[in-house]
Amino acid sequence: MLKKIISAILCLLLVACSQESEEVNSSPSQFSLEDISFAGTVAKIRWSKAQDADQDEVFYNVYLNSELIKGPVSQNEITTTLEYNRDYEGLIIATDRNGGTTELKFNFKGPASKIILVSDFQSGQVVAIDLDTRSRIWTAPNQDGVHSVNNDLVYSGVLNLTAHHLFTGEKVWEKQPVNRSYDIGYRHLMADDQNLYSITSDMTMVAIDLERQEKQWEISLFDSNYRYAMDEAYLYIPKRNNHELIAVNKYSGEIKWEFGVDNPVSSLAPFIEHAPLVHGGNLYFQDNNGRFYSVNKLSGAKNYSLDLGKYSKTAPVWANGNVIFTARDEIFSVKATTGTINWRYYFGDVSQSSPFKEDGKIFVGAGNHLFCFDALTGALRWKSSVGATVVSSPIVYDGKVYVSSHSARLHCLNAENGNMEWEVGNVTFSVSSPTLIIGNSEKIIHPSDYGLHYN
C-alpha cells in the first residue's frame, strides 16, 4: 500500500514539473510610435514602452529600410541622421530576455530639404545654400538675379542655357538654342511645365521646349531688358518703342495686344521697368513717369491710371483686394478696382525692394532697413537694420524673413518681431532676391519681382 502512495505522489510531482516546464514566456506588449521630429537631417524617433508580463527587461532594435540603425537599446527613443526627401519604412522589434518579440511597423518621409538660391553679383555665380547648415553646397555661372526652378532643376543663362540639378549643381543639360553669328546671353529666365522663357542679350524673347531643349519660337523686342510676368496662357512683357507692354501667347509666340502708357509728363520717354502683377482679370504696374496703372489682361484696355509723381522699378503685390507697391521713397496701398489710396508710408530712403505679403503682413526693404507693415491698415509692425543697403526683395517662410544685402550676407530675421536670427556671408556681393525651394520642388517661394503669379 505504501508503495502505491509513494508512486502516486511521484506521478503528481512529475506532472507538476512537466506543467511548470511547459509554461509559455509572455512576449512584450504592443507599443506605438509617439513622435518623429527633425532638426535638419537629424531625426529623433520616440515610441511608447512595451510592457512585459514576466517583468523581463525589454530591449529594442530599430530598422529603417531594412537596415539596423540602433539596437539593442533599452530606452524608447533614438537619434539618427537621415537623408533629405527620402521615404522610410520603419521597424522596431521589442525583445525580452527569453526571446519573446513584438514588432511595430511604420512609414514616414524624411526631412524636407530647404535650399535657398542667391546670386553673387561680383563673381557672376548663383549660390545654393542649405538653410539647415547655412553652408554653400554648389555654385554655377549665372547673370540674372532671380532664379527659375522647375522639377528639381535650376536654370541659369550666360552664353548657354544650362539646367542644374537642384541638390548637387551638376549640369543636366546645356544648350544654345538661338543661333547667331555672335555670342548670345540669356537673362530673365522663367519656366512652366512645358517651356523655359528668356530674354536674350540682343533683345529677343525666346521660348525653349524643356523636353527637347529646342527653341519653340522667338519674337524681337526693342530695347527690353526688364522682368516680365506670366499666367496660365500669356507672357506680359515690358518693352520700349511706341507700345510699352505686350501680351504674348506662351505656346505660339503670337502677340495678342499691345498697350501704350499715358503721354509723358516729363522729358523722360515712358517705359515700364518691372514685372507687372497679374491678378484675376487685370494687370497692375507703374511707369517711369510716376503713374500706376490697371489694365485688362484679356484686351489690353486701360481700367485707370493714377499719377503719384514717383516712379518705381519694383513689382506690386496683391493683398485682400488691394495692390501694394513702393514708389521711390514711399509705399502705397491702393484699392485694386478704383486706384483709391488706402494708406501710404514715407520711408525716408529710396526703396529698391519689391514687397512680399505673408500672413497679413507686408515685408519690404528701404535703405539699410527691412520694414514690416500690417497689410490692411499700413500700421508699422517693426523696422530692423541689416547693416547695409537692401536692394533685394525679401521672401518669408515658416516665420522667417530672408533677404540679401550689400554687406555680402544673407540675413534671416524673425517675421514676428524683426529680430536678427542669423546672417551668413556666403556671397561676395549680392543685390538679388533669394529663391527658396522646399523638398523636391514641392514648394517654391519666389520673390514678388519674379513675375510668376498663377501657382
Care to describe what's here?
- With 455 residues, the chain is mainly beta.
- It has a domain at 33-109: Immunoglobulin-like, CATH 2.60.40.
- It contains one helix and 40 strands.
- Strands 10-9-8-39-40 form a five-stranded antiparallel β-sheet, with no helix packed on it. A four-stranded antiparallel β-sheet has the order 4-3-6-7, with no helix packed on it. Strands 11-12-13-14 form a four-stranded antiparallel β-sheet, with no helix packed on it.
- Strand 31 (356-358) and strand 32 (361-366) form a beta hairpin.
- The chain is elongated, with a radius of gyration of 31 Å.
- Residues 15-21 have low confidence and may be disordered.
Short description:
The protein is mainly beta and 455 residues long.
What proportion of the residues is helical, as a percent range?
A: under 10%
Rounded mean pLDDT score: 88
Separate helix tally: 1
Order of strands in the sheet with the most strands?
Answer: 10-9-8-39-40
Structural class: mainly beta
* CATH hierarchy, class of the domain at 33-109: Mainly Beta
Molecular shape: elongated
Pfam family, one: PQQ_2
Signal peptide: 1-21
Organism: Salinimicrobium flavum
InterPro entries: PQQ_b-propeller_rpt (IPR018391), PQQ_rpt_dom (IPR002372), Quinoprotein_ADH-like_sf (IPR011047), WD40/YVTN_repeat-like_dom_sf (IPR015943)
